[in-house]
Amino acid sequence: MVKDHGKSIKNDEKYEALRDKGMSKERAARISNDPNSSKKGGKASDLDERSKTELLQEAKKIGISGRHKMTKDKLIDAIRNH
């Protein structure tokens, strides 16, 4: 039975599956609340294909500090490992 995590989690089943895989609460919540994510991956474009401006917007959205000083490769790494 899936536990109800309240209004802050939109997809409790996906959240629990991600937590069981070892993801942090913050990352599991972000993924489970994203309407573009699915069981086999999200619809987001490959990070390597995005412009630095797009990467900066994504980094801001997920709260990465120091993002403006990062190179494109560092931004990609920070986003993937956040």
UniProtKB/TrEMBL annotation:
Q: What is the lineage of its organism?
A: Bacteria, Pseudomonadati, Bacteroidota, Sphingobacteriia, Sphingobacteriales
Descriptive protein name: Rho termination factor
Q: Which SUPFAM superfamilies match?
A: Rho N-terminal domain-like
What is the protein's species of origin?
Sphingobacterium tenebrionis
Look up the domain of life of the source: Bacteria
Ranges of Basic and acidic residues composition bias in the record: 1-29, 43-61, 72-82
Looking at the record, which segments are called Disordered?
1-82
